[in-house]
Write a structure and sequence with these properties.
Length: 104
């Protein structure tokens, strides 16, 4: 059975300490690829959780696919992978990220 939700880990090139280096998205495949939940990981491994990604936005944009992100359709400096719900939930629930901060 195919899931209606996809979990994406997105690595970004380091820009500054106040910019995340890893993003996690829980993507609703039935609702135009909108994010249900999102997490940001900073260089110091601080985990910031966002329950309402679209709270203060003017225009709602879907989360690109892993293939689009890796094909550089959204710019350089991205590397995305699909992860499991369990991996996503572990970080969400513990607010602890001990994995790599860069794409391997």
């Amino acid at each position: 059975m195919k899931s209606d939700v996809e979990y994406i880990q997105l690595f970004m090139e380091y820009e500054s300490d106040d910019m995340p280096v890893v993003y996690f998205y829980e993507v609703d495949l039935k609702d135009g690829r909108l994010a249900l939940r999102e997490m940001e990981i900073f260089a110091d491994r601080t985990v910031q959780i966002e329950n309402d990604l679209y709270r203060e936005v003017i225009e709602v944009c879907p989360i690109p696919t892993v293939d689009e992100l890796n094909a550089k359709a959204w710019g350089e400096g991205f590397h995305a992978t699909i992860i499991s719900k369990e991996e996503f939930d572990e970080i969400w629930n513990t607010k602890n990220y001990s994995r790599s901060l860069a794409a391997v």
